[in-house]
Amino acid sequence: MVDIPSSPKTAFLAVPAVLSRPHSHNSELEFDSGMNTSAAWTVSLVNPDGSPRLSVNGSTNPATPATVVEEDIDPAESVDGNDGALEEEIRPARALYAFQGKAEFRELTHVEAGDQLEIVREDVGEGWSLARLASTAAERDEEEGGRSEIGLIPRSYYIFTADFVYSDGLEVPPHHTRQRSRREASTGSITPRGGSPQPEAKPLVPQNTGEWFPSFRRSLLGGKSLNRFSSFVTTGAEEFVLQGSSTDPSATHPPREPTEIDDDGKRESVLGNLAEAERHFVEAGPSWRAKVPPFRVLVHSPNKRTSTLSGGYTMYAVTSVFSALSHSRPASDADSDENPEAAEEPPESIRITVHRRFSHFVALHTALTRLLPGIALPPLPEKQYAGRFSDDFVEARRGDLERYINRVARHPVARYAEVLTFFLGCESDTEWKKQLPYYLSLPPKGPSFFANVYHPAFNVDADEASETIDRFVNHTRAVGKGVQGLRNIFGKVREARVEMSKAERLLSYSLLSMITAKPLASAPTTGLSEDEEGEQNAATHGHVNEDGAWCWREGCESCLKLTKAMQKTSETLQIVADLYDDHARRRQLATHEAFKNVAHPTTLYAPVVDTHRSTLARYHDSVMEGREDEEMAARCETVLNTTMAEMDTYHTQKLEDFQDLAKEHLDGEIALYEQILSRLRAARKAFDQPQYDELEHGPRQPSIYERELEHPRLNPTPLSQPCPHVFDSAPMRPVSVAIQEGVGMILGAPGRASVFGKFW
């Protein structure tokens, strides 16, 4: 509990140090939530006959409940058909922090820390409360003509005065008055200005009016959500559901110089006119209708460049590979008869190569987010500031960008977006610099995106949509958890391949040491004690003859053939060890990186799920008996078609992704073991006739691996780990470790090629 000292207003309340001010809603950057402004709303403090309904000291009509009305609504009308009375007691409170709300969102404005409040409704949903400023009757009449401002305030921004403890001997200051400089006051006054005692009358007991908050939001907020930061609001789906969209799609584009002009003077895009490119169709399912055939994009050939303005950067070649089958005319029967091979010959693909840097991908992602608010776009790799020119990082970034652009290009709607066509097809640097600002200046589509979605009537059943979203959320959560486990296990599999490489290499060294009488500089590993190792080194005479054969007899052809065959076996084991090591570092690293394509589906589709569930709630409100709204229900159906089409897209992409992952892993394993088998079979043939007899000619030549016996390669460098996914949670590390690694990067410490290595 907090004591109230008899200090001025600025220090009237001692806030505990553990209390921290919540994030203010008045950010310097305006947040476009897609909601229209409307007039402020107040609480009526007068009866219909003009008499005061409630005074500060509670002496006037203390038993009359306050009624919430809009300024442009008749006070006699009820919010929910029963006088609209509030169902909770009005409780006094004080503001803990200054709050500058926005009138268009029905929030209290000009609230200073220490101001007295009257909490009309403590919980109206989503962490907000309904409150008004507690002022004297004179202030109410003088400032707002007898009507006090009422609005929303975060629940954490105030504390009830009943929670205070009054200390003995402290004089509580009179009624706190607000400074007149905060707002313009009117000239009328019915109560002398000055302090007045707190009301001692019992709190007002309002009449029971049934369900209050939904009616309040429906009549005063126009049905809009209090959470302005939910995806349902920010994508424009809420505004579309409540008000529709009368915006002409072509009017959302600011004027610019046309790139291609037809006979009518209209700008053309990949699908014809721009309006056609922005129309999206949902088929039965629901599922998106693809207008453009799929294609593949390659990101390759990174090279470092330098600019006088931005310094060094990496430029990537981006090649789009289109199948010529969709662009060529079908072969006729006459052509097939004249040239039978023409129908069987596969068409050549069309390739378009442009050069883009990472900032260009950021611009593409920004434009797509504004253009397609209802689409679950893949996340863009995070920007890197340190070590971004190392070979490991450049290769990892190249792979991440290639996966990103391919996931965008395979989406049936994003695939024919004009900005994507521009990104992949603009080969002129001059045209790129000229048109890029246009795409970056495009405003968010908002409700117009959903207005351009066309679908069959009655394509979604409400009960099925409700059950589908629950199944979808549970499924994606399970998939995300399983993929995280696979990523961790696959890392251990790669480590096991490196350990297998070390084992094969050690076996090769041991075999070569045995037939050459050269000791292996790793006695603990071979199991020999130091004394036994010394005796072995001293007794080398007679171990190998002059021909290098593993025999004490000179000129022994049988031992010479055996020694050469065993040396070949040792060299083959070295090759097998190299294959294991290379497989873990290259092929399996690419597969490990590819697991990010299927990671974190719950986070990626969280905006779609939020929009779907919020739309379902509005749909049920629109079909409620006595409150039917067929137009709103139809718009809700459009949004539900969009969200369910996105879920269908995830289903299709999940099938493709996991098939590709499984085939890539199996193909890599098959290729690895085929190479190993090929090498092992060649070594095995050395012991069979006639190859074995041919080994008796000439002395044995030293193996290239004999020089490594003194310094065996049994401590390989650590495996390179994939760059973390954007949604991965980076583990906390000690500050000392982070500082040491930072110093190591600056000084060029070995084994620290990529700063991402420690985060995985």
TrEMBL record:
Residues 170-209, 243-265, 328-349 are annotated as: Disordered. Residues 294-430 form the PX domain. Residues 88-163 form the SH3 domain. One of its GO terms (cellular component) is cytoplasmic vesicle. Residues 334-347 have a biased composition (Acidic residues). Residues 254-265 have a biased composition (Basic and acidic residues). One of its GO terms (biological process) is endocytosis. It comes from the Eukaryota. Keywords: SH3 domain. One of its GO terms (molecular function) is phosphatidylinositol binding. This is PX-domain-containing protein. It comes from Dichomitus squalens (strain LYAD-421) (Western red white-rot fungus).
